[in-house]
Amino acid sequence: MAAGESSDGTMGLPAKVCMKNQPFHKRLSYSLQGIRSAWKQEASFRTQAWMALGVVAVLIALRPPAIWWALLLMNCGLVLAAELFNTALEQTLDHLHPEIHPAIKVAKDCAAGAVLVFSFSAVGTFLAFLWSMVVRTSSPG
Ligand SMILES: Nc1ncnc2c1ncn2[C@@H]1O[C@H](COP(=O)(O)OP(=O)(O)OP(=O)(O)O)[C@@H](O)[C@H]1O
């Protein structure tokens, strides 16, 4: 055993530090646990996930060119990822500072604003997609 190393191989580091750099399957499992927690706790995340599924259903039904799949899936992913970041920030702030504070209001409002910006982008992209479908079906030939 090297000097300073403990018998459990942690070198006496706090447990939190030892949770870094774990095998891929463990890191994947933590990511999935995060998504499951957001699903359980955040109504907004559930709504956005159902809407993303709706978009996928529309894509499967209409079979548009690949560029529309890429654009719409990317927008759905951005909204869901932004909501996960928003949830992470809310949980951290509520844990570290449960009391009301103007700085926490600004931080939470900005995070919610980020989700709103991505949501507008997603809605705009979806409307453009619908418009392109209408033009494609109404054009002669
Ligand atoms: N500790 C606090 N201090 C000041 N304002 C707060 C605090 N906690 C929440 N707020 C205000 O309440 C709003 C909603 O709070 P919070 O984000 O925790 O709820 P939420 O329903 O989970 O929101 P979201 O739908 O964005 O996930 C915040 O955007 C902020 O304006």
From TrEMBL:
PANTHER family: DIACYLGLYCEROL KINASE. It is found in: Cell membrane. The chain crosses the membrane at residues 43-62, 110-134. Its main location: membrane. Keywords: ATP-binding, Cell membrane, Kinase, Lipid biosynthesis, Lipid metabolism, Membrane, Nucleotide-binding, Phospholipid biosynthesis, Phospholipid metabolism, Transferase, Transmembrane, Transmembrane helix. It comes from Geothrix limicola. Gene3D superfamilies: 1.10.287.3610. It is a multi-pass membrane protein. The lineage of its organism: Bacteria, Pseudomonadati, Acidobacteriota, Holophagae, Holophagales. It comes from the Bacteria. This is Diacylglycerol kinase. Belongs to the bacterial diacylglycerol kinase family.
